[in-house]
Specification:
Blueprint (H helix, E strand, L loop, with lengths): L11 E6 L5 H11 L2 E6 L2 E6 L1 H10 L5 E10 L3 H9 L12 E9 L6 H20 L4 E2 L6 E8 L2 E7 L21 H10 L8 E3 L6 H10 L21 H13 L8 E5 L2 H11 L8 E4 L12 E5 L13 H15 L3 E7 L2 H5 L7 E7 L2 E9 L16
Parallel strand pairs: 5-6, 5-7, 9-10, 9-12, 10-11, 12-13
Antiparallel strand pairs: 1-3, 1-4, 2-3, 4-8, 7-8, 13-15, 14-15
Amino acid sequence: MAKPNHKSSRKDQFIAKTLFGLEELLAEELRQLGAQKVLILRRAVSFDGDKELMYRANLHCRTALRILKVVYQFTARNEEELYRGIQDIFWEKHMSLNDTLSVDAVTSSEIFRHSKYAALKTKDAICDQFRRRTGKRPSVETRHPNLKINVHIFEDKVTVSLDSSGSSLHMRNYRQGDHPAPINEVLAAGMIMLTGWDGTTDFIDPMCGSGTLLAEAALITQNIAPGALRRYFGFQGWRSFNKQLWEKIKKEERENRTEPRCKIFGYDKSNLSIRHSKDNLFIREFSFIRIKQARFSELEPPVKSGIMVFNPPYGERLGKEEDIDAFYTMIGDSLKQRFAGYDAWIISSNKEALKQVGLRATNKHQLYNGALDCKFQCFSMYEGSLTPKGEEEEEE
């Protein structure tokens, strides 16, 4: 991806939200796009940039959940100071009377303990400003507002931002149906990126569920931006939206796509999961993915070597007749017996079951799948030099 030139444009401050463990990845994505003053936070990255960078970050960042544009920061020690601070912002710069708005607040404060009340106070301050100036107030629309406002309060520090993404960026718009436990698209992309996979070696997900890992791998190997299938971003409803610039950025993204540079295979023992995967992935961009029903215990390698990334059950979704420790032992035995030459990456919150794989992890990361604290581990299956069972690495 070519690094755009933003030197001559005015710089604004932004905050990109992400999942725990993906902050470094997101910071590097932003640097590649031309972001300046990149600072890694907890589950977020702050950076400076211009409007063009904001558009590109929403379109291209695989590990971002939201891109927030910071418009004002102030101190508030009570609700009246919060109200006055919100009114210090000239809101007609950002929206007209005919535009709709919504307010989302996140609080970590002994002063402001209720996020919904902080959001209500913010909405009142904005609407009251319009009423005094025009005699009317804008409407609130929670589903598809023209302007989505984010208020973050830490103790007495208030940060007011505009949500340029609208709906969360994990919503790629390729998922067609429901699945009992789909993995978040941002987490799936982050997992693949943590492996170091560049889209040129063959990719296998042997427990593919609804196909999220397969879809994210397909986007990477074709150099398709994760937001390319979305129909709408929040910034498209802003007064400052530059349609010509946005069309230019989308055109560049389409011109930089490639043909698939590897083979991608998906398997699952559940026929229902296979149907979900095919529903999600059999669109033009992903039609080259090969999906079949198969149990991992019986699966033969589709290619001589490659990378394997999968999200096995953690215990709660196994059938009554299946034992979680035996299931993970089967995974380890299958890897040793048939998958020499592969790097197998496994995510699981069941750390005791992971020990039953019986192989030494060559790499590991801490991630969260929803609220579940997970290990994401790599088992490198070297030809002729596999680590004997029982010599797994000690727990940190």
